[in-house]
Amino acid sequence: MIEVTNEAIAKLEEHFEGQDRAPIRVYAASGGCSGPMLGLALDEVKAGDASTEIQGFTFIAEEKLLEVVGDVNIHANEHGFQVASQNPLPGGGCDCNSGCGGCCS
């Protein structure tokens, strides 16, 4: 399930003012030393996607991704959007041999 705060809806309404509302994809983005994280991008619905309508916006994500991460919450503040999930994405974190610097000192 995807949940979106009122603040995030307001930012989306501001962004799309005067233009068509493209579907918004929740996806796993690489995160460097911190591992993958969830992000947002404008996209089209594809085979294997789950789609939900929330306050006039279409949110999409690969069904397999949602099976792994569970519920997704989209928040917004003055710095932009934050996408959090019920379960962490696999592959996160830093190990002392990765060379990411500073995480094991």
Question: What can you tell me about this protein's structure?
Answer:
- With 105 residues, the protein is of the alpha/beta class.
- The chain has a single domain, classed as HesB-like domain (Hypothetical Protein Aq_1857, Chain: A, Sandwich), CATH 2.60.300.12.
- Helices cover 16% and strands 37% of the residues.
- The strands form 2 sheets. The protein has a 4-stranded mixed sheet. The protein has a 3-stranded mixed sheet with strand order 1-6-7.
- A hairpin with a 2-residue loop joins strand 4 and strand 5.
- The longest helix is centred in the first third of the chain and has 10 residues.
- The protein is globular, with a radius of gyration of 15 Å.
- The model has no long low-confidence stretch (mean pLDDT 88).
Oligomer: single chain
Separation of the first and last Cα atoms? 38 Å
Any guess at the CATH architecture?
Sandwich
Gyration radius, in Å: 15 Å
CATH superfamily: HesB-like domain
Q: How many distinct folded domains?
A: 1
Instruction: Decide which structural class fits the backbone.
Output: alpha/beta
| Uncertain spans | none
On the 0 to 100 scale, the average pLDDT is 88
Organism: Pseudodesulfovibrio senegalensis
Domain Core: 2-97
InterPro entries: ATAP_core_dom, HesB-like_dom_sf
Protein name: Heme biosynthesis protein HemY
List keywords for this structure.
2 helices, globular, Hypothetical Protein Aq_1857, Chain: A, three-stranded mixed sheet, 7 strands, four-stranded mixed sheet, alpha/beta, ATAP_core_dom, about 100 residues
